Amino acid sequence: MNNPGLPRLDEIQQARARIDHMIHWTPLLTSTAVNKMARCQVYFKCENLQKTGAFKARGAANAVMKLGEEAKENGVATHSSGNHAAALARAAGEAGVPSFIVMPSTAPEVKKKAVRSYGGEIIECEPTLSAREATLEKIVDRTGATFIPPYDHWDVIEGQATCAWEIGQEGIVFDTIMAPVGGGGLLAGTALSTHYLSPRTKVIAGEPQGADDAYRSFKAKKIIPVQNPDTIADGLLTLLGKKNFEVIVQYVQDILTVNDEEIIAAMRIIFERMKLVVEPSAAVPLAALLKNKEKFEGEKVAIILSGGNVDVSHLPFG
User: Fold this and answer.
1) For the residues of 23-47, what is the DSSP string, one character each?
2) Is residue 2 a part of any domain in this protein?
3) Alpha-helix residue ranges (DSSP H) falling in the chain
């Protein structure tokens, strides 16, 4: 792939050093019970234990830290109702940079509270994409802030790639690395680091059937948006980014889809067997593995648990 923006291995390593003071090196955990169920050795990369509760902390921190001094003075802006909002607000706060976060009025209060706690200024808008984009444009025009999108951005992808880079430093030769896919930032970053560090390792994504634009696009080799996506894995409702797709179509081996029932079952296994709090999106790769055990039998598989930001008072199981 001849793309000047594509992060190289040395740039991913530099990104990891750049954001070291802003993130955790998250643990890689195993479960004998899960291994028996899966008929393979599964290692969970616990990004649910990451700062702000999700891998998004990596990409946001890297994008903020790479800004020039003048851009830092003007601040950063984005539109998000989820993990990227908190991640960008926190990264900006840590760097002493103003942040302006456009959030739909319907965003959960707990998420708004998190953004405010990190020093982000919230600008509410109607809960439509067009309203979010129009409001963001006004904020950027007024403040001169730099727009940092949640996934379709090379500096963000470079930051997300540090997660799989850490996996590569564990001294384990994996047959497969799995990640969920929504906008594609984590998957693209995972695919790049894995390609550089262990090119024989397969990269396979899990995706909800109700929001399967990455699966359809991957098979068709062109982006095919999904209209009205619907899944319990709310973190994966976003449409696939163009830059992310360029990487995914070249360096990802497969995308497997699962339904909400399968996602909930996998989420429950992680809660009960691993004693880890995860959001539905994080359980999608394990659900895909358990649905397709024959593909992974006897392998060593790393699964990225993408986040743990779930309302524990409304878990999808009793």
Assistant:
1) S----EEE-HHHHHHHTSEEEEEEG
2) no
3) 9-18, 32-38, 56-65, 69-74, 83-95, 109-117, 129-143, 154-168, 185-197, 213-220, 242-251, 260-269, 280-291, 293-296
pLDDT band at 2 (very low <50, low <70, confident <90, very high): low
Higher pLDDT, 279 or 2: 279
Contact 201, 166 (CB under 8 A): no
pTM above 0.85, yes or no: yes
3: in domain: no
Angle (CA) 289 292 297, round 5°:
80
What pLDDT, in 10s, does the model give residues 60-107?
999 999 999 999 999 999 998 778 999 999 999 999 999 999 998 888
Phi, psi of 281 (to 5 degrees): -55, -35
Q: Is residue 4 part of a domain?
A: no
In a domain, 69, yes or no: yes
In 116-140, which positions are buried (b, 16+ CB within 10 angstroms) versus exposed (e)?
Answer: eebebbbbebeeeeebbeebbeebb
> Looking at residues 5-31, what average pLDDT do you find?
97
The count of structural domains within the chain is 2
Sign of CA dihedral 122, 93, 54, 48: negative
* Beta carbons of 194 and 221 less than 8 angstroms apart: no
